[in-house]
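Cross-posting from the modeling subforum.

Setting up a comparison between two proteins and wanted a second pair of eyes on the formatting. Protein 1 (sequence, then structure tokens):
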Amino acid sequence: MMISMMEKKSHLKVDKMKRNFIISILIVTIFSGCTSLFDVTPRIETVVDTVYVPTQCPTYTYSLKINGSKYDDHKKYSKTMVIANLDTFLESLERNKLARQTFNKGIIESNKETKVIATPKTSNFKRIEKRIFVKRECPKYTYTPKIKVRKLTKNFKKDSNTTYVVIPLDNIILSMEKYKLAKETYNKHIDEINNKSFKKELKNNFDGHIDNTVTKIDKTKKNIK
């Protein structure tokens, strides 16, 4: 009987210790700032969209201009002149124009940014953009117009089915030299762009606005030509 009473007291003592321990834990939890266990604030997912920005290359804008006039059988030409088939002459100018437009279209397309949209994992999210600047080589302009002309002489015989244009020799030489100089100047500028430190140039343009990072990614380089 005496042993049973002692066992009962021992059990009551153990139960009291357990109860006191649980109460102590709850008090410590509440006053220690561990309220995060009960935080019901919804979490906002940050989704990072990546924007790839290639080196911005300039377009070629110089237009070849050659002044001429329709050949007149009854007119005497005192200056040194050259003569060309009008259709062939206009076709040469159109080919030059088309070459420039095709080149510039490629430049404009390749200057566009490529944006990769990230997929959120939750319905509660916000988007931010990470810009990656991709170094690339700008292309040179290599097209050379070919204008077929010949010197106008007294022995020239006009084909009755052909319309001709006459051009002062000085004018066509000057026009072609201006075109050549414009192309050389453009290509020299391209060399300067390609040889400059890409990161340094970006820092000059964006310093104070973004932290510049230059990253080369093979997959992106294939998309940005």
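Protein 2 (same layout):
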Amino acid sequence: MNIRKIKLALSVGLMNQEAGNAVNKIERMMDNFREDVGDLIGRRELGKSNLNRSHVQQTYALQFERCTLKVDLVSNLATNTQVVNTFSFS
């Protein structure tokens, strides 16, 4: 599995993303690497915390057959936008 290649593709894809659900977009991007990571097994929310009245930080784990992708994102409740803060593989 070429993690560097996957990280680069996710970074570029996230920089070019339009408004919408970031986790769904990451799932679709990871579909391009199905041979490396395997099929998506599931998604779960690991944590959620309020940063202020209009911003929430959430952490998700996307479980694939061969790895787990942890995604931290910040959601703006007023504008319904999401920004990925960090992501990492394990």
